[in-house]
Specification:
Shape of chain A: elongated
Largest sheet of chain A: none
Helix content of chain B: over 70%
Low-confidence stretches of chain B: none
Oligomer: heterotrimer
Number of strands of chain A: 0
Structural class of chain A: mainly alpha
Strand content of chain B: under 5%
Number of domains of chain B: 1
Number of strands of chain B: 0
Chains: A mainly alpha, B mainly alpha, C mainly alpha
Mean pLDDT of chain A: 86
Chain lengths: 112, 84, 86
């Protein structure tokens, strides 16, 4: 039984690191800055959470600290992603040829 | 054992690259400060691999956190031209 | 079996680290570099997990908690600097 839990935890850890690798691949290959924000925060959040669950299966006595780290990451990562997207729009770094329509700029332009 | 040696080699290469970016970059000053913070962050992971968790925690909080924020704060103040 | 899978996961983490580091070196705009900095911090949290697994010491996870706090605060401060310059 303990061996089965070990193998399950190692498989979850491997799945989490594969999500981290996919996030890194998206960060390298994506053409636009919003796509890079999406790949660089969502996929790495899921990968880190899966890795934390896998380590909790491997060592059950560390579960409290791992739960604390996971809850903190789950709360703060979407917030930092939103702040980054707002900074990208305000500094004008988001302009690229792949972006066709920008409703936020239209709405901001209409206001006095 | 071999794995931790490999991770240490990778970390040292990344530290050298970020230190070169911090000192010899033709980029803006903010990028240099960010690269210096990255070098300090990777040094903290290196301390952890060398089995010193207390030094690693201090390095992460002071070297990579407080110093980087203080540099950004001072850079913003200097650019706005305040003299108080 | 489990040790082989953990070693494989550590190698995959090193590859992800290299990819995010390439975006930090190459990134055209400062926002790209901040995304890469955040990603490097998060990948380093997983690296700390592997160090804790290799050394069998639970005290290493406290450093991972400090890292999670640091990544959030760093992104907030640098984005605020880019928007308004403090």
């Amino acid at each position: 039984m303990a061996e089965f839990l070990d193998i399950l935890g190692a498989l979850l850890l491997l799945a989490g690191t594969i999500f981290l690798l996919l996030g890194g691949l998206g960060l390298v290959r994506m053409p636009d800055i919003y796509n890079r924000i999406q790949a660089g925060t969502k996929a790495t959040t899921l990968g880190t959470l899966l890795s934390l669950i896998g380590v909790a299966f491997l060592h059950p006595e560390w579960s409290l600290k791992l739960l604390l780290i996971g809850v903190f990451l789950l709360f703060t990562n979407p917030l930092s992603s939103q702040v980054l997207a707002r900074a990208a729009h305000r500094t004008g770094a988001h302009k690229s040829s792949s972006m066709i329509v920008d409703h936020l700029e239209d709405d901001l332009g209409e206001k006095p | 054992m071999t794995l931790s040696i490999g991770m240490g080699l990778l970390l040292s290469v990344a530290m050298v690259v970020s230190a070169i970016m911090a000192t010899r970059g033709k980029r803006s000053l903010g990028i240099s400060i960010l690269a210096a913070g990255l070098a300090s962050l990777l040094a903290s992971v290196m301390f952890l691999l060398l089995a010193a968790p207390d030094v690693a925690m201090t390095e992460a909080a002071i070297g990579s956190g407080l110093t980087t924020f203080l540099f950004f704060f001072v850079l913003g103040r200097v650019r706005r031209g305040e003299h108080d | 079996m489990a040790e082989v899978l953990v070693t494989l996961a550590a190698i995959v983490t090193c590859m992800a680290f290299l990819m995010v580091l390439w975006r930090f070196i190459k990134g055209p705009s400062p926002v790209d570099r901040i995304i890469a900095f955040d990603g490097l911090t998060i990948v380093s949290i997983t690296g700390i997990l592997f160090a804790a697994l290799a050394a069998e010491r639970g005290i290493y996870l406290d450093v991972a908690l400090v890292y999670a706090l640091l990544s959030f605060l760093g992104v907030i401060v640098v984005a605020r600097f880019l928007e308004r310059g403090f």
